[in-house]
């Protein structure tokens, strides 16, 4: 039987500590932990993320605020906004949603975020810490999506040490930090991407596949070793022939699920884990302020 790696029970198990930690910080600071999200333009996956984290923030007692900027905003304006948030003592965590429009250099914006407020774990400092963790230790801070995936694997008792892990996608927000975390926990890691010449040859030998491309149905049943663990990060919206809207991942779920050992659903898998890791890191950032 395929194990469906649903986020729901994992999140339920996190709720008590998130709520208690947020309440503790609220009592100490006299205000709730505060997350500010900067959203430029209207990327659909970002819109889903913003909506879900707002709802979950309210549930656990975090104040979440979204600053929306027009798609034609200048880089200097975004830098100025981030600097203002860095200086604001009432803001504990800052995230700038990616992707950003072409006129803006994402690296410049990300590295303007103060290290202490970088709850996405994207700055150079955070990246350096992630890649230099002691061997076999668990990352406790870092980019929210791979952190959430590690939490999901741990909850369901899927050990990664000695496994052959193939990550499809090499972005700074998912693919690369995922590689760091799996590698650190003892997996043998391959990162595939659009220039990989034979993707199927790579995935066919994988014990764990992490698909993070934004390409619907990229991972098909013929690419999967029976019994493999399939982690689907993709967030793709599409409208079917009958005009009905769907949200799907990068995996051909209907055909892959029956042969997989374990698989994350979309929705209800990786996405909610990301949201909860973001809130966890926001509460932790506020707790550090409270302890000062
Ligand atoms: N569930 C969640 O919590 C999250 C979901 N997402 C979703 O995950 C997906 C990926 O996000 P993100 O990492 O930001 O995306 P990017 O667009 O930054 O990266 C996509 C990666 O996929 C690779 N790729 C594209 N097409 C192929 C192909 N045909 N074969 C192999 N590799 C391919 C690209 O290769 P190359 O580098 O060569 O261009 C690139 O490395 C999106 O759908 C996004 O919305 C993202 C973050 C969190
Ligand atoms: N700086 C930055 N950090 C990010 O982590 C980041 C980003 N930018 N840009 C966009 C992507 C995308 N992303 C999602 C996270 C959760 C869901 C999510 O909650 N998904 C639900 C959707 C449920 C629904 O509403 O239907 C699910 O899969 O169940 C979606 C998308 C984070 N990203």
UniProtKB/TrEMBL annotation:
Pfam families assigned: THF_DHG_CYH, THF_DHG_CYH_C
Alphabetically, which GO biological process terms does the record hold?
L-histidine biosynthetic process; methionine biosynthetic process; purine nucleotide biosynthetic process; tetrahydrofolate interconversion
Which residue numbers delimit the Tetrahydrofolate dehydrogenase/cyclohydrolase catalytic domain? 5-120
Key words, A-Z = Amino-acid biosynthesis, Histidine biosynthesis, Hydrolase, Methionine biosynthesis, Multifunctional enzyme, NADP, One-carbon metabolism, Oxidoreductase, Purine biosynthesis
Cellular component, GO, one term: cytosol
Pathway listed for it? One-carbon metabolism; tetrahydrofolate interconversion
Indicate the quaternary assembly: Homodimer.
Q: What family name appears in the similarity comment?
A: Belongs to the tetrahydrofolate dehydrogenase/cyclohydrolase family.
Q: What does this protein do?
A: Catalyzes the oxidation of 5,10-methylenetetrahydrofolate to 5,10-methenyltetrahydrofolate and then the hydrolysis of 5,10-methenyltetrahydrofolate to 10-formyltetrahydrofolate.
Which protein, by its recorded name, is this? Answer: Bifunctional protein FolD
Traced from the root, the source organism's taxonomic lineage reads: Bacteria, Bacillati, Bacillota, Bacilli, Lactobacillales
């Amino acid at each position: 039987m395929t194990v469906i790696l649903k986020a729901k029970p994992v999140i339920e198990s996190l709720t008590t500590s998130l709520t208690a930690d947020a309440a503790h910080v609220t009592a100490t600071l006299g205000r709730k932990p505060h997350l500010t999200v900067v959203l430029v333009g209207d990327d659909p996956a970002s819109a889903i993320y913003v909506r879900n984290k707002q709802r979950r923030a309210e549930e656990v007692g975090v104040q979440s605020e979204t600053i929306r900027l027009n798609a034609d905003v200048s880089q200097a304006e975004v830098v100025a906004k981030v600097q203002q948030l860095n200086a604001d003592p009432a803001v504990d965590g800052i995230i700038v949603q990616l992707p950003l429009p072409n006129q803006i250099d994402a690296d410049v914006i990300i590295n303007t975020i103060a290290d202490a407020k970088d709850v996405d774990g994207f700055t150079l400092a955070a990246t350096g810490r992630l890649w230099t963790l002691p061997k076999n230790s668990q990352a406790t801070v870092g980019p929210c999506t791979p952190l959430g995936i590690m939490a999901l694997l741990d909850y369901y008792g899927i050990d990664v040490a000695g496994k052959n892990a193939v990550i499809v996608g090499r972005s700074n927000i998912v693919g690369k930090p995922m590689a760091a975390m799996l590698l650190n926990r003892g997996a043998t890691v391959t990162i595939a991407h659009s220039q990989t010449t034979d993707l199927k040859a790579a995935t066919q030998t994988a014990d764990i596949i992490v698909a993070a491309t934004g390409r619907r149905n990229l991972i098909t049943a013929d690419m999967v070793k029976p019994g493999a663990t399939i982690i689907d990060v993709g967030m793709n919206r599409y409208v079917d022939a009958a005009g009905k809207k769907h949200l799907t991942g990068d995996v051909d779920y209907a055909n892959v699920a029956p042969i997989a050992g374990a698989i994350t659903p979309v929705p209800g898998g990786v996405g909610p884990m990301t949201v909860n890791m973001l809130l966890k890191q926001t509460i932790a950032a506020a707790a550090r302020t409270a302890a000062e």
